[in-house]
Amino acid sequence: MSKTKKPSIRDYLYEPPGPRTRTWIRVGTALALGLIAALVYAVIHQFAVTGQLKAKYWSFFSRWTTWRFIGQGLLTTVEVALTAAAITFAAGFLLMRGRLSRHAILWRLSAGLISFTRGVPTLLFIYFFFLVVPRTGVKLSAFWKIALPVAISACGVVAEAFRGGVNAVPRGQREAALSLGMTERRAFYRILFPQAFRYIIPTLIAELVIVLKDTTFAYIVSCADLMQNARVLISNYDALVSTYLVVAVIYILINYGLNRLSENLAGRESRRKTA
Amino acid sequence: MSEHPVIELRHVEKHFGELHVLKDINLSVARGEVVVVIGPSGSGKSTLCRTINRLETIDSGEIRIDGERIPREGKNLARLRSQIGMVFQSFNLFPHRTVLDNVTIAPVDVLRIPKKQAREEALRLLERVGVGDQARKVPAQLSGGQQQRAAIARALAMHPKAMLFDEPTSALDPEMIGEVLNVMTELAREGMTMLVVTHEMNFARRVASRVIFMENGSILEEGSPESFFTHPQTQRAQAFLQSIQDH
């Protein structure tokens, strides 16, 4: 491996830019930066004009109780997201096993469930758990009213990601495992799935980001997540813009962290393979 | 020891849709025999090889391993497969495991051999095929010839009753073909029962106890390598031998 920057996919797909292209890239970069700076200035200027930068909209962020409240919401968000992710990965795995099964009923059922969960918007599942499920007499806490629908809404996509990964493993791998006397099941768990899992780590983390973003619907079921607590702050301090800005930055930081994690894992795998 | 042939095919038929790929194949391989199957591409020789451990299903007929009919599925199929080693054209080593793990995984998982014992034997086998010093690497770090030799060691670790070779040198660079053929020749000398699908005519001439010529899904001719290569009976075999001598 080179000691300098690790090569990205771009380095393999395109030849390095020549001198003229580099000039154009510099000009373009400068123009784009200028435009972005102008845009940021315009936004801040507009906020100043409309009074959004006034101290009363920002001063409550200097109180530690505000941050404790935001922290509590964030903790709930993370709990809901991790719970939903665990459920959706497990359900997605089962659906994938069903979809790849040789039993016609099982795979038809799984294929149907996968299409259904992929086709229905998350919000509808949430309303189902919020409005329909209670009428059947089943009492769920706000936590589960958001975690379950978010999990269900993602599991079809996860199942297809798993399946794509398994299908991407060369056919000869299964044949080699079978020729050594492994049963189909053992070949799957020992040989196929471990290889497939490496292909799909980035997709799974991308799905985790989607799950995390879907948890922002928690306010509908009055689950006190980050978004819900932000709404409480907004109505208490009448500070919509400032609060949403802060909350957006928190979400961006978390998801940026997840994406970095995914890149690191993917990079480590590709280095292992070619090392 | 039984008097059954190690591998026996009776009236085996197979279609791929419209295509009749195996036509009434009858073949038996006795213990210690080395049968080399040759023929033009598309003649069904690879398919024949793959039906023996049921990586390809058959439409009718029967296949017996050491007298036992190979079942359609289940634990018994897996058990019979474990008694037949297979070497593939594209090696098919498990890329996520070290070379050593590749050799030990099936003995430990399938035969329940203690890990330590499996490792010792694996190292012996890797040594024997000349890649003992590569044991801790992953397959991608090995050359094609080394990978194929490791794949042979992996199959041998199951103590198979017979070995199937499905064009084992066709994916190799020319300079690596020899090292793989040497390992195979050595195996044959030690009395391993083998069925080899190959285009390596010199190997067939030197090592085969019997040569089988296939075309269009049928066995057209079979005999000792001397008689087949010097006096092919059918016109098709003559034409085939002519065509490979020409280039």
Give a quick set of tags describing it.
heterodimer, A: 275 residues, mainly alpha, MetI-like fold, 0% strand, B: 247 residues, alpha/beta, six-stranded mixed β-sheet, four-stranded antiparallel β-sheet, 9 helices
Description of the molecule:
- The complex is a heterodimer of chains A (275) and B (247).
- In chain A, helix 7 (142-168) crosses helix 9 (184-214).
- With 275 residues, chain A is an all-alpha fold.
- Chain A has helices spanning 9-13, 19-50, 55-58, 64-99, 104-119, 122-132, 142-168, 171-179, 184-214, 226-237, 240-274.
- Chain B is α/β, with parallel strands linked by helices.
- Chain B has a 6-stranded mixed sheet, with helices on both faces. In chain B, strands 2-1-4-5 form a 4-stranded antiparallel sheet, covered by helices on one side.
- The model of chain B has no long low-confidence stretch (mean pLDDT 95).
- The chains are: A mainly alpha (275), B alpha/beta (247).
Task: Draw up the topology in text.
The complex is a heterodimer of chains A (275) and B (247).
Chain A: H1 9-13, H2 19-50, H3 55-58, H4 64-99, H5 104-119, H6 122-132, H7 142-168, H8 171-179, H9 184-214, H10 226-237, H11 240-274
Helix pairs in contact in A: 4-5, 4-7, 4-9, 4-10, 5-7, 6-7, 7-9, 8-9, 9-11, 10-11
Chain B: E1 7-16, E2 19-29, E3 34-38, H1 45-52, E4 60-65, E5 68-69, H2 75-82, E6 84-87, H3 99-109, H4 115-128, H5 144-156, E7 162-166, H6 174-189, E8 193-197, H7 201-207, E9 210-215, E10 218-223, H8 225-230, H9 235-246
Parallel strand pairs in B: 3-8, 3-9, 6-7, 7-8
Antiparallel strand pairs in B: 1-2, 1-4, 4-5, 9-10
Helix pairs in contact in B: 3-4, 3-5, 4-5, 5-6
